Amino acid sequence: MFLALMFTREMPKYDEHLIGNKMLTADTTLRSLGGQAVTIPADLSEKTSRVVGELTSCNRVLAAFSGGIDSTLITYLAKLTLGENVIAVTANSPSLPSLELTEAKKLATLMQVKHIIIRTDELNDPNYISNPTNRCYFCKKELGEKLIQLADQMGGYAIVDGTNAEDLQGHRPGAAALTEKGIRRPLAQAGMNKKDVRELAKLLGLPNFDKPSMPCLSSRVAYGEIISPERLLRIERSENLIRSLTGVKELRVRDHGAVARIEVGRDERKLFFDEVLLDKISEGLRSFGFDHVAVDLAGYRSGSMNQSSPAMRDRKQ
Predict the structure, then answer these.
(1) Dihedral pair phi/psi, residue 216, rounded to 5°
(2) Fewest C-beta in 10 Å: which of 8, 167, 198, 280?
(3) Lowest mean pLDDT among 76-90, 135-149, 303-317
């Protein structure tokens, strides 16, 4: 079955071989994972047509694919638009939770997209492990370089990622690094925000449409505190344990040296109202190397480490 997506805007003209293969026509037909035809709202249809047009102009694409909803959506749209001329590329490193890599592999298989896993070595970069406020710049800089090398080896591939319009707001040094490397961002260019991404992903039947954002493990460490493999491992083990005991979806274990500060989604805080459970979490995290374990009563807040970081406070002054 097919998902009919009728674009009202006048589409640009593309190479005859693309139109002949029905990769893009004025009346584009997209296939949903679930096989159910849906109607795309007019405002979202306009944005989607822009994304499809941008992808078609690439001809062949390497999609930076973390397994999050943004990169899943752009990879799936690229697959629908360009067929076999799409390769999903996932960067594996100690800062990527192992469960996220496993999920990325499953999603690539589900979307029937060729999947390549590359290794990044940001922990060998002194600029990264010193954990400055622009730490993400050095990580994404290396990622961009590795993607460019791979694209050159493959020959004729454009590089895209799942950056959405909201990702370009605020403190985003990683986005700046990818811009410097010439990485294309069709979702952001089309004006798609996170709400748009989730809505379209749900309509297309992508199973992770409501998945919470999952930044790298280093984001749990306050700026200025050294990043080490051991530190990242205890954060990952702590979050895996808490998820297994509680089933929470939105979770961060903030590493404050001797103290682990647990943040969960505000509507999930009630899952911790159990003395036996709290004892198990405390004992588990202490066994991973923390001296004190605390639950943040305010719940999860994006960027909460920035609020408590002297480096970020100084940066704002």
Answers:
(1) -65, 165
(2) 8
(3) 303-317
Tokens of 241: 């344990």
Query: In which residue are the tokens 């078609």 written?
Result: 56
* Ranges of H-type helices in 216-294: 229-246, 275-287
The Cα–Cα gap between 277 and 128 comes to 36
| Coil, helix or strand at residue 77 | helix
The residue count for the chain: 317
Nearest partner of 11 among 19, 3, 20, 21, judged by Cα: 19
- Judged against a pLDDT cut of 50, whether residue 263 lies above it is answered with yes
What amino acid is encoded at 22 in this protein? K
Task: Check residue 261 and give left, alpha or beta (phi > 0: left; psi -120 to 50: alpha).
Answer: beta
C-alpha dist (Å) from residue 226 to 69, 121, 137, 218: 29, 16, 16, 10
Strand-pair partners of 296: none
Q: How far apart are CA 143 and CA 121, in angstroms?
A: 9
CA-based radius of gyration for the chain: 21
Q: CB–CB of 5/45 below 8 Å?
A: yes
The token duo for 64 is 């930076």
Confidence tier at 290 by pLDDT (50, 70, 90): very high
Please say whether the beta carbons of 262 and 294 come within 8 A: yes
Q: Cβ(228)–Cβ(252) under 8 Å?
A: no
Distance of alpha carbon 264 from alpha carbon 249, whole angstroms: 8
Instruction: Report the 10 Å Cβ neighbour count for 151.
Output: 18
pTM of the model: 0.85
For 106-130, the DSSP string reads HHHHHHT-EEEEEE--GGG-HHHHT
Mind listing the pLDDT tens digit for each residue in 97-142? 999 999 999 999 999 999 999 999 999 999 999 999 999 999 999 9
